[in-house]
Amino acid sequence: MNLNIITAYLAYTGANAGDIVTVSLVRTDGYGSVITQTLTIPTTGLPSQIITFDLQNAVEQPSYPEPAFAEIPIFRGVMGAYQVQATATGMSTTSASSTFYVTLVPPEELSEQWLAGVPLESLDIVNPVTQPQNITGVKIKKVSEGTVRDIHTLTFTVNSGSPNTLSWDGGTPVNIPATRDTLYLVSLDQQSWIMVVVVPFLLPAVTMTETIIISGSQMTEQALQNYVLYAVNNLENQWFFNVEPRNSDTDPALNSSTSNSQQALGSINKFFVERSEQAMTYYRPRDFSHWMSFQLPRRRILKVYHLDGWFNQSQAVSIGRDWIVFDQITGTLELVPNNGAIISWQFYGAAILQFFFNYPEIPGFWHFGFASGLPSLNGEYGIVREAIAKMASRNILAAAGFAFTGGAQSIAVSRNGVSDSRTYAGGAGGAFLLREYSNWLDINVPKIGDRLAGINMQFM
Questions:
Q1: 10 Å Cβ neighbour count for 154?
Q2: What is the model's pLDDT at position 268?
Q3: Angle between helices 221-239 and 382-402 (to 10 degrees)
Q4: How many CB atoms lie within 10 A of CB 109?
Q5: Could you give the C-alpha distances from 296 to 213, 277, 292, 305, 329, in angstroms and in order?
Q6: Distance between alpha carbon 222 and the CA centroid of its chain, in Å?
Q7: How far is CA 244 from the centre of its chain?
Q8: How many CA atoms, within 13 angstroms, populate the side-chain half-sphere of residue 69?
Q9: In what order do the strands lie in the sheet with 181-186?
Q10: Would you state the pLDDT for residue 406?
Q11: At what angle do helices 431-453 and 382-402 cross, to 10 degrees?
Q12: Residue 298: strand, helix, or coil
């Protein structure tokens, strides 16, 4: 199973041989298309076609020469929400799939590889496997703990001249009010009940009975994806670098539009701003025999888009890219001219020179835009993905453990009005994995940060 592959099924209506269809994998966060393919329909009347996207190909190629640092391709098929969009010959509109989510570690891989098939199901809490599909306007919010994990029935009855009703497993019908309300439905044998929310105007027009499967409450695919997201955020905060390439800027409202500084970079998607950074203070060099430098707020720098100096709300200087040299790992940026680069410094007013060289510091002076993150998660960087998977799995197993009651370890029976006390033993499935992953993370997370981005230091 190749987890990098996204498969789309295109259904055609009235397709003719030779028609051109443009299909794109699109990030819905505003970045736009990351992979685009063009298809030619081979035969008239073709009902459908299968198309695949390999996320490994979602790469932004270098768009212009890099004088001071060799620009490398940047991976843009990052974790987030996507759609597949298609436009055919002669169409003015675009058809789009439903939105789906891509994570660094897919739920299937988590369940099969990292969680070793541990069942993520509560032994005490039961829920419907799916909500009612035919009896629209009804949502089951809660199921009693004593409800048997099995097939049950929900019945909606249309009554002429009296309120419509709902019933559960042949139990007493409950009248449906005229407005949205919460109802409790009890089974015929009075061994189970459900709590439902009813929206009357969404109910069907005819009487019907629907089968509802009740099972142990399981972690949803979305919940597993969220655990991966939490793991990524946690590790990024510890390592001080983005796991995936992200664009950052001190002035996203300014530089995410088609401004002059933007145009030098190509299309606007080349500088889609994903994260906002704080402008940094300029400190006058103590030794003018060294190149001027400062530390960007993140490490693992892939590209510097622009560097400007601002005095309060006025732009003071625009520094050409042929001055910029940066250390990819540590994020240290130095201003080193190449041949003829002196003229690229553009000062806005002669008075700025006095502030620039005579004052010890200028708060909020440096404004910048850059891309940072790991170039890939393969090869030497594969251990980063392993850390993400193990941290997500550790947290999932811990949460699953809370839903596992375990066996009774001790029971204290009370008298004279004093309530009894019970102690339950732990031991949910995957407890051994949880301990192993916790130990691995404690040892390796700091080492990964030091190896890939150096030791984090601050100069006071």
A1: 22
A2: 35
A3: 130
A4: 18
A5: 55, 10, 13, 13, 11
A6: 10
A7: 11
A8: 20
A9: 138-143, 193-198, 181-186
A10: 53
A11: 150
A12: coil
Contacts of 40 (CB under 8 A, 6+ apart): 18, 19, 20, 21
Cα separation, 174 vs 164, in Å, equals 8
**For residue 346, is pLDDT > 70?**
no
Contact assessment for residue 425 and residue 272, using Cβ atoms and an 8 Å cutoff: no
| Complete domains list, the chain, with CATH | 5-102 (2.60.40), 121-218 (no CATH), 246-372 (no CATH)
Give the H or E element holding residue 77: none
Instruction: Please report where in the chains the tokens 């009975």 appear, as a residue.
Output: 209
CB 131 within 8 A of CB 211: no
Q: Which pair of tokens denotes residue 185?
A: 């439905």
Task: Measure the CA–CA gap between 32 and 256, rounded to whole angstroms.
Answer: 13
Q: Provide the residue type at 376 as one letter.
A: S
Summarize the confidence of residues 386-405 as an average pLDDT. Answer: 84
Helix 431-453 to helix 221-239 angle (10° resolution) is 40
Q: Please, are residues 58 and 77 in contact by the beta-carbon 8 Å criterion?
A: yes
Q: Residue 17 — φ and ψ, nearest 5°?
A: -60, 135
DSSP string, 234-266: HHHHHHTB-SS-EEEES-HHHHTS--HHHHTTS
Give the pLDDT score at 352: 57
Who's near 89: CB < 8 A, 6+ residues apart?
A: 19, 20, 21
Using one digit for the tens of pLDDT, what is the confidence trace for 184-240? 999 999 989 999 999 999 999 999 999 999 988 777 888 899 999 999 999 999 998
Residues 6+ apart with CB under 8 A from 55: 4, 5, 6, 35, 77, 102
**Contact by Cβ (8 Å): 104, 236:** no
Backbone angles phi, psi at 31, to 5 degrees: -65, -40
Q: Are 352 and 318 in contact (CB under 8 A)?
A: no
